[in-house]
Design goal:
Layout lengths: L14 H4 L10 H16 L4 E3 L9 E4 L12 E11 L3 E6 L9 E6 L2 E6 L5 E6 L1 H14 L10 H20 L1
Antiparallel strand pairs: 1-2, 2-3, 3-6, 4-5, 6-7
The structure holds ligand K2U and zinc ion.
Protein backbone atom coordinates (compact mmCIF):
# COMPACT_ATOMS: atom_id res chain seq x y z
CA UNK A 1 0.00 0.00 0.00
CA UNK A 2 1.38 3.48 -0.77
CA UNK A 3 2.68 5.04 2.43
CA UNK A 4 -0.45 6.22 4.21
CA UNK A 5 -0.30 8.77 7.00
CA UNK A 6 -2.60 9.07 9.96
CA UNK A 7 -3.64 12.54 11.09
CA UNK A 8 -4.38 13.63 14.67
CA UNK A 9 -8.06 14.55 15.05
CA UNK A 10 -8.79 17.99 16.57
CA UNK A 11 -10.81 18.00 19.79
CA UNK A 12 -13.59 20.55 20.52
CA UNK A 13 -13.26 23.43 21.45
CA UNK A 14 -10.95 24.43 18.60
CA UNK A 15 -11.50 27.47 16.33
CA UNK A 16 -10.60 25.39 13.28
CA UNK A 17 -13.68 23.23 13.91
CA UNK A 18 -15.93 26.32 13.82
CA UNK A 19 -14.56 27.84 10.62
CA UNK A 20 -16.46 27.41 7.35
CA UNK A 21 -14.30 25.52 4.85
CA UNK A 22 -13.42 26.81 1.37
CA UNK A 23 -14.64 24.95 -1.73
CA UNK A 24 -12.07 22.90 -3.64
CA UNK A 25 -11.21 24.91 -6.78
CA UNK A 26 -9.19 22.30 -8.64
CA UNK A 27 -8.81 18.61 -7.91
CA UNK A 28 -5.18 17.54 -7.53
CA UNK A 29 -3.19 14.41 -6.75
CA UNK A 30 -2.38 15.75 -3.31
CA UNK A 31 -6.10 16.33 -2.55
CA UNK A 32 -6.79 12.73 -3.61
CA UNK A 33 -3.92 11.55 -1.39
CA UNK A 34 -5.43 13.63 1.45
CA UNK A 35 -8.76 11.81 0.92
CA UNK A 36 -6.94 8.45 1.13
CA UNK A 37 -5.16 9.51 4.34
CA UNK A 38 -8.48 10.74 5.80
CA UNK A 39 -10.10 7.34 5.07
CA UNK A 40 -7.13 5.62 6.76
CA UNK A 41 -7.46 7.99 9.74
CA UNK A 42 -11.23 7.36 9.88
CA UNK A 43 -10.93 3.55 9.85
CA UNK A 44 -8.23 3.68 12.52
CA UNK A 45 -10.26 5.96 14.85
CA UNK A 46 -12.60 3.97 14.26
CA UNK A 47 -15.30 6.01 12.67
CA UNK A 48 -17.78 5.97 9.79
CA UNK A 49 -17.16 9.53 8.64
CA UNK A 50 -14.53 12.28 8.79
CA UNK A 51 -14.42 15.88 7.51
CA UNK A 52 -11.21 17.72 6.57
CA UNK A 53 -11.69 20.45 9.24
CA UNK A 54 -11.38 17.68 11.86
CA UNK A 55 -7.74 17.25 10.88
CA UNK A 56 -7.24 21.02 10.71
CA UNK A 57 -7.62 21.40 6.93
CA UNK A 58 -10.43 23.84 6.08
CA UNK A 59 -11.30 22.52 2.66
CA UNK A 60 -14.63 21.06 1.56
CA UNK A 61 -13.74 17.36 1.57
CA UNK A 62 -15.47 14.58 3.52
CA UNK A 63 -14.95 10.81 3.61
CA UNK A 64 -17.45 8.14 4.71
CA UNK A 65 -17.92 4.42 4.97
CA UNK A 66 -21.10 3.58 6.84
CA UNK A 67 -21.05 -0.13 5.96
CA UNK A 68 -21.23 -1.75 9.40
CA UNK A 69 -22.43 -5.28 8.76
CA UNK A 70 -19.54 -7.72 9.13
CA UNK A 71 -18.89 -9.54 5.89
CA UNK A 72 -20.41 -6.78 3.74
CA UNK A 73 -17.81 -5.19 1.47
CA UNK A 74 -16.81 -1.72 2.63
CA UNK A 75 -17.86 1.31 0.57
CA UNK A 76 -15.21 4.00 1.12
CA UNK A 77 -16.41 7.33 -0.29
CA UNK A 78 -14.52 10.63 -0.80
CA UNK A 79 -16.70 13.64 -1.63
CA UNK A 80 -15.35 17.04 -2.75
CA UNK A 81 -17.67 20.08 -2.48
CA UNK A 82 -20.66 18.04 -1.29
CA UNK A 83 -23.99 19.89 -1.50
CA UNK A 84 -27.42 18.84 -0.24
CA UNK A 85 -29.86 19.38 -3.12
CA UNK A 86 -33.00 18.02 -1.43
CA UNK A 87 -34.01 16.92 2.06
CA UNK A 88 -37.08 14.89 3.01
CA UNK A 89 -39.72 16.47 5.24
CA UNK A 90 -39.71 13.20 7.17
CA UNK A 91 -37.07 13.21 9.90
CA UNK A 92 -35.22 10.53 11.83
CA UNK A 93 -33.53 10.62 15.24
CA UNK A 94 -30.09 9.15 15.77
CA UNK A 95 -27.84 9.09 18.85
CA UNK A 96 -24.84 10.82 17.33
CA UNK A 97 -21.22 10.97 18.39
CA UNK A 98 -18.25 12.84 16.95
CA UNK A 99 -14.58 11.95 16.73
CA UNK A 100 -13.84 15.55 17.76
CA UNK A 101 -16.04 15.25 20.86
CA UNK A 102 -15.00 11.85 22.25
CA UNK A 103 -17.31 9.80 24.48
CA UNK A 104 -20.25 12.20 24.13
CA UNK A 105 -23.50 10.95 22.56
CA UNK A 106 -26.79 12.78 22.10
CA UNK A 107 -29.94 12.40 20.02
CA UNK A 108 -30.10 14.60 16.93
CA UNK A 109 -33.12 14.88 14.62
CA UNK A 110 -32.34 15.31 10.93
CA UNK A 111 -34.13 14.79 7.57
CA UNK A 112 -34.46 11.04 6.99
CA UNK A 113 -33.35 11.20 3.32
CA UNK A 114 -31.05 13.66 1.52
CA UNK A 115 -30.00 14.00 -2.12
CA UNK A 116 -26.33 15.00 -2.30
CA UNK A 117 -24.25 16.21 -5.25
CA UNK A 118 -20.44 16.15 -5.15
CA UNK A 119 -17.23 15.73 -7.19
CA UNK A 120 -15.52 12.34 -6.84
CA UNK A 121 -11.73 11.73 -6.84
CA UNK A 122 -11.87 11.17 -10.63
CA UNK A 123 -13.33 14.68 -11.02
CA UNK A 124 -16.75 13.34 -12.04
CA UNK A 125 -19.93 14.96 -10.71
CA UNK A 126 -21.98 12.47 -8.68
CA UNK A 127 -25.50 12.66 -7.27
CA UNK A 128 -27.09 10.15 -4.88
CA UNK A 129 -29.96 9.95 -2.42
CA UNK A 130 -28.99 8.60 1.01
CA UNK A 131 -31.17 7.28 3.81
CA UNK A 132 -30.54 5.53 7.13
CA UNK A 133 -27.14 5.89 8.74
CA UNK A 134 -25.61 7.16 5.47
CA UNK A 135 -28.05 10.10 5.49
CA UNK A 136 -27.27 10.91 9.13
CA UNK A 137 -23.54 10.66 8.53
CA UNK A 138 -23.38 12.74 5.33
CA UNK A 139 -25.37 15.53 7.03
CA UNK A 140 -23.11 15.33 10.10
CA UNK A 141 -20.01 15.61 7.86
CA UNK A 142 -21.35 18.47 5.70
CA UNK A 143 -22.17 20.32 8.94
CA UNK A 144 -18.46 20.04 9.83
CA UNK A 145 -17.63 21.87 6.55
CA UNK A 146 -19.86 24.72 7.72
CA UNK A 147 -18.25 24.82 11.18
CA UNK A 148 -21.30 23.18 12.80
CA UNK A 149 -21.04 20.41 15.41
CA UNK A 150 -23.83 18.04 16.47
CA UNK A 151 -23.77 19.64 19.95
CA UNK A 152 -24.93 22.89 18.31
CA UNK A 153 -28.37 21.21 18.05
CA UNK A 154 -28.50 20.71 21.83
CA UNK A 155 -29.60 23.17 24.53
CA UNK A 156 -27.09 25.83 25.55
CA UNK A 157 -26.76 24.27 29.00
CA UNK A 158 -25.94 20.79 27.63
CA UNK A 159 -23.48 22.29 25.14
CA UNK A 160 -21.73 24.23 27.92
CA UNK A 161 -21.42 21.13 30.09
CA UNK A 162 -19.97 19.15 27.15
CA UNK A 163 -17.54 21.93 26.24
CA UNK A 164 -16.30 22.14 29.84
CA UNK A 165 -15.80 18.35 29.84
CA UNK A 166 -13.75 18.59 26.60
CA UNK A 167 -11.61 21.45 27.97
CA UNK A 168 -10.79 19.26 30.99
CA UNK A 169 -10.08 16.25 28.75
CA UNK A 170 -7.65 18.32 26.65
CA UNK A 171 -5.95 19.63 29.81
CA UNK A 172 -5.55 16.10 31.18
CA UNK A 173 -4.24 14.84 27.80
CA UNK A 174 -1.73 17.71 27.67
CA UNK A 175 -0.48 16.66 31.11
CA UNK A 176 -0.07 12.97 30.30
O1 LIG B 1 -17.60 13.18 11.89
C1 LIG B 1 -17.27 12.46 12.81
O2 LIG B 1 -16.88 12.91 13.90
C2 LIG B 1 -17.40 10.95 12.67
C3 LIG B 1 -18.75 10.60 13.20
C4 LIG B 1 -19.67 10.36 12.05
C5 LIG B 1 -21.07 10.11 12.53
C6 LIG B 1 -21.62 10.74 13.64
C7 LIG B 1 -22.93 10.47 14.02
C8 LIG B 1 -23.70 9.59 13.30
C9 LIG B 1 -23.16 8.97 12.19
C10 LIG B 1 -21.85 9.24 11.82
C11 LIG B 1 -18.71 9.42 14.17
O3 LIG B 1 -17.98 9.71 15.30
S1 LIG B 1 -18.03 7.95 13.57
C12 LIG B 1 -18.32 6.96 15.03
C13 LIG B 1 -19.67 6.32 14.93
C14 LIG B 1 -19.69 5.03 14.52
C15 LIG B 1 -20.90 4.40 14.33
C16 LIG B 1 -22.11 5.07 14.56
C17 LIG B 1 -22.08 6.40 14.97
C18 LIG B 1 -20.85 7.04 15.17
ZN1 LIG C 1 -18.15 14.78 13.83
Amino acid sequence: MADMSLYPILIHPDPRLKKASAPVADLSDELCKLAEDMLETMYEAPGIGLAAPQIGINTRLIVMDCVKEEGESPRPMAMFNPQILESSDETSVYEEGCLSIPDVYAEVTRPKEVTVQWIDPKGAEQRETFDGLWATCVQHEIDHLDGKLFIDYLSGLKRQLITRKMVKLKRDRARS
